[in-house]
Amino acid sequence: MFKITSLIFGAAAAKGVSKGKGTNYEYGILLQPVPILSWKNENGQGVSSGFKTPDNNDALKCTMDMLHSLDSIELPAFLEMDMQPSPDDIKELICVGFKVVAHIPTKYEEFQVLYNKKLDSVTDSKK
After folding, report:
1. How many domains does the chain have?
2. Which of 15, 75, 106, 119 has CA atoms 20 to 30 A from the CA of 62?
């Protein structure tokens, strides 16, 4: 088993039967930030800044059971994740468990409270 720590923006899961072939499917994904890539070629160029979530194919995979336990936490958050090889493809890792390292506030008021606490602790330590 491997452990990785990553910022997770969101999670999604699906389970059902495909319309076309009637085959069963089940998957869970964790969406982590990936950089938006700049590009340049003979036809032009694109400049970017910041992050986006990956396409579903490039997202971290997780089990449905693990995904249900994410209901108890608020995302985004830094998670320390337990990863193990997929039974379907040994080259692919699947998240089977996690521990919250830190919650990332998404509302300005939450951020402001957290930021002010950090400033106070830095000021107190310099006294």
Report:
1. 1
2. 106
**Is the peptide bond prior to 76 cis by the omega test (within 30 degrees of 0)?**
yes
Domain with residue 80: its CATH number is 2.40.50
Do 9 and 32 form a contact (C-beta atoms < 8 A)? yes
Range of the structural domain that residue 21 is part of:
2-125
CA angle 66, 93, 83 (to 5 degrees): 50
pLDDT interval class at 121 (50, 70, 90): low
User: Smallest Cα–Cα separation from 67: which of 2, 12, 3, 7?
Assistant: 12
Predicted TM-score (pTM) of the model is 0.72
Q: For residue 38, give both structure tokens.
A: 């700049």
